[in-house]
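Hi C.,

You asked whether I'd gotten around to modeling the 313-residue construct. I have! Everything is below, sequence then structure, no commentary in between.
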Amino acid sequence: MSKTWSEILIDDHQTTERVFDAVLQAFATPAGPPLRLVLKFRSYVREYVDGCHNKKEEDHLFPLAEARGVPRQGGPLAVMLMEHEQSRQALELVTQLVDRYSAGEAGVLEELREAIEGYASLLKGHFWKETDVLYPMVRRLMEPGDDAQVLAGIEATEAALGPDTRAKYYGLAKEICGMVGLDPLSFALAPDVLAAILDTLPVELSFVDAEDTVRYFSHEHHDKIFPRTRGSIGVKVQQCHPAKSVHLVNRILADFKAGKKRVAEFWIDLGGRRVHIRYFAVRNPQGQYLGCLEVVQDITAIQALTGERRLLD
């Protein structure tokens, strides 16, 4: 299924934010970032962020927004245009400092880090405003055919830079992040905080690793739909199911490992409750199978919802 114009632009935002985090993480190492990484970063932000992403908005989305009543002077559109110019000024400073760093100038590393940090901070705030404010506003004002028009413009902008432009620069972004080994967002969370977050979710989780061994379940100290004890940890998942259902467990896991499926779901009636059970294949960013996540949820109250609720009690 083809992506919408807003999904494409938001993908650009998320990809670029990961690049920023990776590069700044490299600056935090004792040796600092390798020159090769810095040069790849400069190529990505100059050629794709400014040379493609911003142009997709300036040449196609922003004119459409203005035509549908969003004023170019004042309001969110004016702010976005102003920040595009600010980002270009910040990028010019980054570019100059990269040149000096590339030439081996002593003492420029900290100056370069501060410039990239400022550029990244500006764009992260800018991306948030576009994603949460401008894009929803434009979608509400759009008329039939406008979506297709903006999408066609985005595709034309990318095509003008060569074949498979987006895939090419997303690949460069992935390469930059791979050079650093970008930490996942959960890295900064203390284990007890992460555990509390998982226990707070309105679903019960269980994780079986790539060798079919039970490694985790949530809500240990809460009542559960399907009771579990610590005795299940380290046990093969097949031993945790009735013999008559083991063949189904094995089929699900085999399909996940082979890449044939990424989700399997069931729903049952249990003690007057409607229970939704889903199994998800868990993979790392490289696509390697890490295991299976079981998600169990009591959906009785959800199925009973009617109408809308927009206010707090």
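If it helps when you're writing up: The radius of gyration is 24 Å.

Thanks,
B.
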